[in-house]
Amino acid sequence: MQDPSSAEARWTSLRTALVRAVRRQCPSWLSDHAEDLAQAALVKIMSGVHAGEGNRPLTSFYLYRVAHSALVDEIRRRQRRREVALEDEGPDGERGRVEPHAAANPEQDASLRELGAAVRACLLAMGADRRQAVMLHLQGHSVPEAGRLLGWSAKRTENLVYRGLGDLRRCLTSKGHTP
Amino acid sequence: MSTPEQPDVERLRAALASLGDDAQWPDADAERLFSALHGEMSAEERRALVDELIRNPRAAAMWRLARELPPDDAEMAGAAGVEAPRRQAPWVWLSMAATLFLAVGTIWQIADQPREAPVYRSGDTRHIESLLHDGDRLPRSAAILRWSAIDGARYRVRVLTPDLQVLDESANLDTAMYRLSPETLAGIPPGGRLLWQVEARTTGAAPIVVSPTFSTMLE
User: Where in the sequence is the domain holding A112, given as residue range(s)?
Assistant: First the structure.
């Protein structure tokens, strides 16, 4: 039988990881509510784990995968709610109450999104190996990590990332962006 | 060869990430993404998935979240030996969630108190217990929560649904009981559960006593 205090410590540890993930990766209108998001995901996980998993051991992989899904669901739910609120205009044209958006500077935000769209377009136009290597690099992976995921040696991956970033910079410049 | 990391890479990362918050992108399979990143999948399948990340910035955002949640069997050392919680009633797990939920509020409230000079005390043995009997169903017409009293204390009670929606809250109670109105309970189905917790405060420098989260079934 699992010691209740160690079980609770385990959930607390998972909760901490969820909060950290939201704070690092979500826009501020979501990351400001990281505690709430993690809590909602955790409740969903606990209910789901109980309802469907019988007596088999809960591996860390299983638990974190379910946690990731629950967090994604909760984020999506809040995004939908926010979209509805944005569309919900009152009779005097005043918008419904919404959580504040991330952008401290809307111009910078728009500029960043414009650059993001250009990066995406350039990646889609790039050769497959280079674009996959560069995409994982832009997702935050180190060269060895990207190589492992893509099934290539670190040397080959480094080469592809290096050349791919060069292609990307040239493409962005041709579209009028300064990388 | 020079390292591919350049000063502009962080800006390119931020630019690409900024697309993920847009409503236009379709949903993606979160479990598949997580498994591709942390589990077994062929390199060919992964490459195809990386192309999907480029096409669908929402999937890319999910991938970045998954990257922040690496399973760690060393960290979760007890995992292999942990029994799945079917052997316990669901409210036990929900109570744990509620405990976490309520703890945040309690910590916030304690932090909000004026600071006092540190006082050295012997171990505080006071605690709060539910006086409702296990297995008893709380009648809707007389839904009274009762707990063990602490001399001179005033109490705050919070009542939650199992999905942690706050149903009722009352502070500054001077007796160790609280009656829930039928209206408060109207949304709880027969046999549904309430989670509740009590905080006791006494005058002077004595610390706040917080009860465990109790779970009670409604008739």
Answer: 106-174
Where in chain B are the domains? 9-67, 88-114+125-218
Give the CATH class of B88-114+125-218: mainly beta
The residues in A 47-76 lying below 8 A from B, measured between CB atoms, are 47, 49-51, 53-61, 63-65, 67-69, 71-73, 76
Domain count, chain A: 2
Instruction: Count CA atoms closer than 13 A to B94's CA, side-chain side.
Output: 22
Q: Please answer whether residues B130 and B216 qualify as being in contact, where contact means their C-beta atoms are separated by less than 8 angstroms.
A: yes
Instruction: Give the pLDDT confidence of A30-72 residue by residue, as tens digits.
Output: 888 888 888 888 887 777 666 554 445 567 888 888 889 989 9
pLDDT bracket for residue B49 (50, 70, 90): very high
Of A43, A102, A161, the CB nearest to B4: A161
What are the structure tokens assigned to A44, written together? 């969903």
Facing B15 at nearest CB: one of A11, A46, A119: A119
Domain for residue A100, yes or no?
no
Residue written as token pair 């999905």: B163
Distance of CA B200 to the CA centre of its chain: 22
State the ipTM, two decimals: 0.84
Q: Which residue of A has its CA nearest to B10?
A: A138
Pair (A140, A69) in one structural domain: no
Cα gap A100→A56, rounded to integer Å: 43
Are A74 and A110 in the same domain?
no
Taking the CA of residue B189 and the nearest CA in chain A, the distance in Å comes to 18
